[in-house]
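Form 12-C: Joint structure prediction
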Amino acid sequence: EVVMTQSPLSLAVTLGQPASISCKSSQSLVHRGGNTYLNWFQQRPGQSPRRLIYQVSNRDSGVPDRFTGSGSGTDFTLKISRVEAEDIGVYYCMQGTIWPPITFGQGTRLEIK
Amino acid sequence: EVQLVESGGGSVQPGGSLRLSCVASGFTFTNYWMTWIRLAPGKGLEWVANIKEDGTERHYVDSVKGRFTISRDNAENSVYLQMNSLRVEDTAVYFCARHRYASHWGQGALVTVSS
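Section 2 - Result
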């Protein structure tokens, strides 16, 4: 099983400032076909999770361009260029390269300072 | 617009059973794997099971193998999760999601297992 480790687990950011979340996998997430199936999700309070980023760096439809995914191999990052109030919630990385099982990180709680 | 609507949640005693349903609309159901993911109180997201477009492949997290069964009815645009021998630790909100990589999610169904 691929273990996904996120850091930090909690993050307090001033409005308008950047935020960064790290996600490290216990094995390389490069699929033999060449793609890397690393996704990022956001769960706002009281809402269902929503996918933000797929295959490391592709934003889903409707996701603001202040969200950027990057990384390769075993190290990945989600960056928010300027945090807004609507960004509070819990963020998860998820790998779908080596499965079953598909595995998630523990989650990172983002709050406003 | 993609819509996924879960139903069938509720409260049950340990050892009991529940069947969750998820009705999909707004996309060609037969083109997608479907997935169940859960969120237990105070914990993170956990992938539970998924099923291939034609139902010929099904995969489960180890903790539910032999107790849960995922199935689908492509004529009804629906995916199901039959949960037997439920345990207290199965208490969670269960989400239905489109695709192996959860591009779209339902609103969730709460399952509470308690004596």
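Section 3 - Comments
The interface with chain B takes residues 37, 39, 41, 43, 48-51, 54, 60, 90, 92, 94, 96, 99-107 of chain A (CB under 8 Å). The longest strand of chain A covers residues 19-25.
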